[in-house]
Amino acid sequence: MKRKLFTGMGIAGVSLVLAASPAWAQGNTEASAIVQTVMDNLWVFIAGILVFFMQAGFALVEAGLTRSKNVANIMAKNIADMCIGVLAFFAVGYAFAYGSGGGWFIGGNSWFLSGESLFALPDPELLETGEWVSGGLSGATDFFFQVVFAATAVTIASGAMAGRTKFSAYLLFSALMTAFIYPVVVHWTWGGGLIAEFINWGDADSYSDFAGSGIVHLTGGVAALMGAIALGPRIGKYGSDGKPRAIPGHNIVFTVIGVFILWLGWFGFNPGSELAADGVVMSVALNTLIAAAAGGAVSAVVVVMKTGKPDVGMVGNGVLGGLVGITAGCGAFNTFGSLLTGAVAGALVVYSVLFIEKKGIDDPVGAVSVHGTCGIWGVLAIGLFSRYDDAFLGRDDAGLFYGGGLDQLSVQAVMVVIIVAWTAITAGIAFQIIKKTTGLRVSPEEEAAGLDISEHGAAGYHLETTN
Amino acid sequence: MKRKLFTGMGIAGVSLVLAASPAWAQGNTEASAIVQTVMDNLWVFIAGILVFFMQAGFALVEAGLTRSKNVANIMAKNIADMCIGVLAFFAVGYAFAYGSGGGWFIGGNSWFLSGESLFALPDPELLETGEWVSGGLSGATDFFFQVVFAATAVTIASGAMAGRTKFSAYLLFSALMTAFIYPVVVHWTWGGGLIAEFINWGDADSYSDFAGSGIVHLTGGVAALMGAIALGPRIGKYGSDGKPRAIPGHNIVFTVIGVFILWLGWFGFNPGSELAADGVVMSVALNTLIAAAAGGAVSAVVVVMKTGKPDVGMVGNGVLGGLVGITAGCGAFNTFGSLLTGAVAGALVVYSVLFIEKKGIDDPVGAVSVHGTCGIWGVLAIGLFSRYDDAFLGRDDAGLFYGGGLDQLSVQAVMVVIIVAWTAITAGIAFQIIKKTTGLRVSPEEEAAGLDISEHGAAGYHLETTN
Amino acid sequence: MKRKLFTGMGIAGVSLVLAASPAWAQGNTEASAIVQTVMDNLWVFIAGILVFFMQAGFALVEAGLTRSKNVANIMAKNIADMCIGVLAFFAVGYAFAYGSGGGWFIGGNSWFLSGESLFALPDPELLETGEWVSGGLSGATDFFFQVVFAATAVTIASGAMAGRTKFSAYLLFSALMTAFIYPVVVHWTWGGGLIAEFINWGDADSYSDFAGSGIVHLTGGVAALMGAIALGPRIGKYGSDGKPRAIPGHNIVFTVIGVFILWLGWFGFNPGSELAADGVVMSVALNTLIAAAAGGAVSAVVVVMKTGKPDVGMVGNGVLGGLVGITAGCGAFNTFGSLLTGAVAGALVVYSVLFIEKKGIDDPVGAVSVHGTCGIWGVLAIGLFSRYDDAFLGRDDAGLFYGGGLDQLSVQAVMVVIIVAWTAITAGIAFQIIKKTTGLRVSPEEEAAGLDISEHGAAGYHLETTN
Predict the structure, then answer these.
(1) N or C: which end of chain C has fewer CB within 10 A?
(2) Average pLDDT of the residues of chain C
(3) Where does residue C112 fall: left (phi above 0), alpha (psi -120 to 50 degrees), or beta otherwise?
């Protein structure tokens, strides 16, 4: 991701094209440097399009796993996340995350993209300084890729809050998340704030998170958890004995097609985070594919062991868990590390969903488990399987484990604590303020009638008797 | 778009790669020129794929906003638009639009792509003449990108004619639209006909329409209007008092996922219209994203003001209105001009839908408002926010308004009148002929039974009692 | 496809960029060669993403054309095909197909991608040997593109086995198909085994199959046929008089959106099989588009002639038949050959579906006809319309027919026989073993209840009375 100042980035930012043989870099003519720069921008833009489309995937997964009487509301929330996310991130979020004028806590300047060079591609003369690839995105390309990540972060919370949240309250939360809560996390990591300045065990061991298992998914997952707690469970989710009851989703086709769309989008999310077009892109995609497959397969085995049947929604969440898990390490692991990371994530999802349900927290789609639990696992896995070393540029593929070492593992754990604390506190305060002012939850009557009717004035489905 | 002979193109056609520093262009080796040419073709092809996929988005939006008893018919129309559109545009439409052998009214030659160089990429020796980028697409690339636009233009009309049109009559109209009505509009503008020859207030002020707010969407929107008028409203749409009654759509998930797919496709539609891979592509995408977000947000506010509830289908149309609105100016506006264009379009959609409904015209999906009304707005906005000037190549981003000036505004308005007149007359005649010969509308009994049964012999849905 | 050692490849593998003017190749600097290599990898990777997404299309087509009580099972099978396919092809399938250590029958080495260079792009010094483009994919790029083809091959069979297959039995079959049956066919053709060694009528006439009408679709179609035969028809498909009865699909929207997604994915499947970024890519896409349109149009005409109504599902299958048909010849035909190939395929689908149904074989989605029948037609069409000749590099576009000649036709027919025999025997044995051990088909009670309940423990849909 942009301006990566720590391990995951500083190194990834240097294109293999240059790295593989420094001699060739010298041979690069200016003309080739321009063409390569255009290709870098084009690829990151195409990757951004794929991430954009994940919004449709999130909408379908959430719709499929919840009740039919709230389906229009779910669609509305997902459109709103993109509309509000784009406007809020454009106005202030991008500046908070990457603006040059701030300090370790938060960025400044660049409000409304002012001062960003949106059209011009970087000066190829940067080639001479060796920075032309890592600094090679135009302002438009960079914003496009960053803003769709912001929309992803907020949408994660949507699923955990399904079926009982006031639409107006959700819009407020969505704006706050994309304008402030998420951008601060980005500033602390990819934006060169906190981590680069304070939490840095030396170049080789600073926080590493290639595409955002922690920065995007954990942040979204914690916000989801705080939302679910602030709201309380849906009516009927827990019996008078306090035991959870199943509220089945209404359309498994939507859920699974949503999973496929998210999986598709992840081939932009992870490989696009290389922020350049080079040979690393495809190996990141390969790791992403293998981890997702392992996540799906292992979740199927575990859910059969626990319940006797291969629940389809759970397998879908296993695939997503594998994807979230590999998001941090996809640029640093070999294929075996990726396989293992995905497999563990696939098991974690099932246990986490059952654990959270038992604790009285109603997360209708499993968002906390998929993005929170597997997000933590993904961040920590860097300390176990990462292959960053002096030979990193060659990306030596032999052997199973390298391991970032204990130093690496500890800095990863510290950042998990920081992200959880920051998001829990800010989202928690936000939900309390909303609760006290506009109100966070609809009335029991409105909930029973369904949010489609009560909040949007029309049912989501109308099936005629003639059909 | 291809062979842009007026402002929007002549300038856009010159790649920023060259423009940013003419000195580098000199430094370009032939080898780099070839690689750049391949990338230009590859990007425009990928953009064409995205536009192709919009057909699925149109199908879903139309299906979701209409009744379940006509859903198979809607799917059939959308497949047919692509099949017929490809064959008709291949046979004659492309030649009418871009064929070299015609005059100001219509093109000639190139029937069945004969004489087009489908495989070979342009001769890099064109580099020496400074034309290698703008003329850099192979015949196959160019046709692919153009034909999916033609399919879009006709599909727009499908929604306004939903629920009562004979399938055979629709097929006739679809062929006529892609073979003749739309190609003539293209020839007059992007094809170098009418506009280039007659309506040209000088280089700086000739008609500008980067990706087709007027050429594609307004043409489709006017055809939609003529179709809706020729058909008359669906049975039950207007009470005996003449007042409109709501006929709710049957599946909001389809509608919103369709909107997301269209939004996705627009990242090919607009940025692909640069017809080259350069730094402008991503800024066009940024403008597209911001306008759509503004359109969705403003439509939500306006619909709440008018009805008290955030109707989800209307917000979806607000997003689409913002997209249609920015389609003309996405290559010429800065981000603030784009924001404003999208915002105005979002409001226009709501008022236009209500106005058209009140006038007794039954447009089940709001196609006339989204594509017609916002198409006009997009074309006119060029006269307000366009930043084309001597410094254009540098794409100065400072300040809010530049404005194309009154000359520019007037030429834009003239072209709106021409497009509306041409399409209204030709589509109007076509619908009358169809009405008098094969018939345009199904019988009331067939309409009541649903087109799925009466026209296709099988219902679109079969839900079993066991489920 | 990779390491194409026969006509379709040896020639296609040489980029037009080089071919158009060998003089320019000399002028290529090393820098440009690197940038071109990155672009080759990037394009093939993007094409692979599109093919990946076809899995969602297959899922939707199959779901739409079958009964609602089996819809969760269908979704589960399609997720499983991707998860199992990736893991099995990663473990052994890729090695069997392309591993260097085997003989004419099967490949070896490369287990778990060991020894493959996943990150590094090929050495541009290959440029000097003239092989840099055709050998220009990294191990990661190549595996990614190959594995999504493997997943496609197995998923084809899923549809023919819908509604009565044990989930565990299907998983076994899926693993066997992606680990062994399909990889062997690939090894014999694209992998340099059997065909390259034995069945070779000389360079100009060896087996040609650009993207796999035979290698992928026929293999999948024959497996589908064997599965349908081994299972027997669904309860109620044939009356006591032995005559087939219609079991209508439950959701035409899913079917048609699935067709659009598959059509979209085919723009990766076919043009990506060029395995390089050059001017051939877009002409392959053009041929693909035209054949699909012709297939859809002709199938509509034929189905109206046979039944009186334009059945929408059949038109969708006509489009898919056109796509399967052109998959072998898309790199070798001109536009007229493509049009004709698609048109014939569109008619074949309808007749084949009716024929197979009459023969007592229950293929709920028409997979055998679409992929098997049209796959055979596509392979044979190479002998009729292929334009491979000495002037091939120039891809002369004039005239309608060239024809591969009788030699070409006979080698194509021999390979059809080989693929059919291999797949029928191996899949047939596999199904018999499964039948005798774990069992292949669910009990009549489970079938009546629906696989969603009996195999996965939950219905796929839950529509509430409040809606």
Answers:
(1) C
(2) 87
(3) left
Describe the crossing of helices B280-307 and B312-326 by its angle, rounded to 10 degrees.
Answer: 140
Check pLDDT > 90 for residue B141.
yes
> Helix, strand, coil: what percent of chain A each, to 5?
65, 0, 30
pLDDT tops 90 at residue B54: yes
Gyration radius (Cα) of chain A, Å? 22
CB of A108 closer than 8 Å to CB of A192: no
Angular region, C212: left φ>0, alpha ψ -120 to 50, beta rest: left
Q: Three-class SS of residue A108?
A: strand
Question: At residue A346, does pLDDT exceed 80?
Answer: yes
CA distance B318 to B262: 13
User: For B467, which of C16, C308, C461 is closest by C-beta distance?
Assistant: C461
Q: What phi and psi values does residue A96 have, to the nearest 5 degrees? A: -60, -40
Residue B55 · residue B82 · CB < 8 Å: yes
Structure tokens at B422: 């041409």
Could you count the other beta carbons within 10 Å of the beta carbon of residue C88? 25
- Beta-carbon separation of B121 and C309 below 8 A: no
CATH class, A7-456 region: mainly alpha
Q: Does B43 contact chain C (CB < 8 Å)?
A: no
Cα–Cα distance, B342 to B344 (Å, whole number)? 6
Least confident range of A132-136, A179-183, A383-387, C228-232: A132-136
Backbone angles phi, psi at A11, to 5 degrees: -85, -45
Q: Is C165 strand, coil or helix?
A: strand
Range of lowest pLDDT (B206-210, B234-238, C153-157): B206-210
pLDDT of C17 above 70? no
CB distance C416 to C368 below 8 Å? no
Residues within 8 A of C (CB atoms), A 3-42 only: 16-17, 20, 24, 27-29, 31-33, 35-36, 39
What count of other Cβ atoms lies within 10 Å of the Cβ of residue A448? 13
Contact assessment for residue A364 and residue A65, using Cβ atoms and an 8 Å cutoff: yes
Domain boundaries, chain A: 7-456
Measured CA angle at B386 (ends B381, B387), to 5 deg: 165
Q: Please check whether residue A252 touches B, CB under 8 A.
A: no
What number of C-beta contacts closer than 8 Å exist between B and C?
Answer: 211
A neighbours by CB contacts (3+ pairs under 8 Å)? B, C
Tell if the CB–CB gap between C75 and A459 is shorter than 8 Å.
Answer: no
Separation in Å, CA of A373 to nearest CA in chain C: 22
Instruction: Name every chain A residue with its beta carbon within 8 A of the beta carbon of B29.
Output: 29, 31-32
| pTM score of the predicted model | 0.94
**pLDDT greater than 80 at residue C352:** yes
Instruction: Copy the structure tokens of residue A175.
Output: 């704006």
Do the chains contact at B461 and A455, CB–CB below 8 Å?
no
User: Nearest CA of chain B to the CA of C294: how many Å?
Assistant: 7
Contact state of B45 with C17 under an 8 Å Cβ cutoff: no
- Tell me if chain C has a CB within 8 Å of the CB of B312: no
ipTM: 0.92
DSSP C185: H
Distance in Å, alpha carbon of C26 to nearest chain A alpha carbon: 16
Mean pLDDT, residues A221-245: 97
Q: Are C301 and C314 in contact (CB under 8 A)?
A: no
**DSSP class of residue B278?**
S
Which of B382, B381, B383, B402 has the alpha carbon at shortest distance from B391? B402
Q: Yes or no: say if C130 and C39 are a contact pair by the CB < 8 Å rule.
A: no
Least confident of A262-266, A451-455, B339-343, C99-103: C99-103
Tens digit of each residue's pLDDT (9 = 90 or more) over B389-398: 433 333 444 4
Cβ distance B84 to B185 under 8 Å? Answer: no
